[in-house]
Design goal:
By secondary structure, this protein is mainly β. It is built from 2 helices and 18 strands. Belongs to the UreD family.
Length: 234
C-alpha cells in the first residue's frame, strides 16, 4: 500500500484555518471543531498499518503566523509483511516564520519480524516553533521485537538543528533490549524555538541543549506511560 496524506494550515482573519486536509487510508486526518486560535487535528490509522511493503507519507505545511497541533489517537503498530518485506513512513514538515507546530503522535510499536523505517524531516524558518515527540516500543508484551530504523532531520533557516539516526531491535529479545539498557521504551522530546534550557539529567533521562538552538530530552523506561511522564516533570 502507498498512501500520501497532506495538511496545510494558514493564518487568516485572526485565526488558523486548514487550507488543505487530504486523507488517504490508512492516514486519516480528523479536524477538531471550535479549536480556537490553534487548529487541532487528530491523526487516525484507519487500517492495520504499517504492514510490510507499505509506503506512507504525511506532508505538513504551516504558514506564517499559523498555529497547528497534530496529535495521534492510537499507537502505530509496525507489522511484518507476508514475504518479509519492510515498510516505511515519512513525515515531511515545513513551518514558516511565526508559525507553530506541535506534532505529537502516539507510540510506534515494533512487533516481531517487522522491519520498519521511519523518517521525520522538518524545515523551519528562523522564527518558527516546533514541538515533536517520538516514542519507540520494542515489541508487544512478552514479544520479540522486529527492527526499526528511525531518522530525525531538522533544519532552521539553512542551519542543521538535529540530524540523528537510530536502529533498534534485533532477532533476539535479550540482544534488542541491551541496546536500551534493558528498557523496552525510548522516548525523545524535541523543542525548537522555545526558551533555552540548560543541560540536565536524572535517572534514565537527559536533556541536551542543541548547538543551533532547541532542546532534546531523552527518556528510557519500561513502558510508554513512564517514559512520557518524564517530559511533564523535567
Amino acid at each position: 500500500m502507498k498512501a500520501h496524506a497532506r495538511l496545510t494550515a494558514c493564518f487568516e482573519g485572526g485565526r488558523t484555518v486548514l487550507r488543505e486536509l487530504r486523507s488517504m487510508a490508512p492516514l486519516t486526518l480528523l479536524p477538531k471543531r471550535g479549536a480556537g486560535v490553534t487548529a487541532v487535528v487528530h491523526l487516525v490509522n484507519s487500517a492495520t498499518s504499517p504492514l510490510g511493503g507499505d509506503e506512507l507519507k504525511l506532508t505538513i505545511r504551516v504558514g506564517a503566523g499559523a498555529s497547528l497541533r497534530l496529535s495521534g489517537v492510537a499507537a502505530t503498530i509496525a507489522l511484518p509483511g507476508p514475504h518479509g518485506e519492510g515498510s516505511s513512513s515519512l513525515v515531511d514538515v515545513v513551518v514558516e516564520d511565526g508559525g507553530l507546530l506541535e506534532y505529537l503522535p502516539e507510540p510506534t510499536v515494533v512487533t516481531a519480524r517487522a522491519r520498519h523505517t521511519a523518517e521525520f524531516r522538518a524545515s523551519l524558518a528562523p522564527g518558527a516553533f516546533l514541538h515533536t515527540r517520538e516514542v519507540l516500543v520494542l515489541g508487544r508484551a512478552g514479544e520479540r521485537p522486529g527492527t526499526l530504523a528511525t531518522t530525525q532531520h531538522v533544519v532552521r533557516g539553512a542551519v542543521p538543528v538535529l540530524r540523528q539516526t537510530l536502529t533498534i531491535g534485533d532477532s533476539t529479545l535479550d540482544s534488542s533490549l541491551a541496546h536500551l539498557a534493558g528498557r523496552r521504551v525510548l522516548a525523545t522530546d524535541l523543542v525548537v524555538g522555545g526558551p533555552s534550557l540548560p543541560a540536565a539529567s536524572g535517572e534514565w533521562w537527559s536533556r541536551t541543549p542543541l548547538a543551533a538552538g532547541g532542546t532534546l530530552t531523552t527518556s528510557l523506561a519500561p513502558d510508554a506511560v513512564t517514559a512520557l511522564r518524564v517530559f511533564d516533570t523535567v
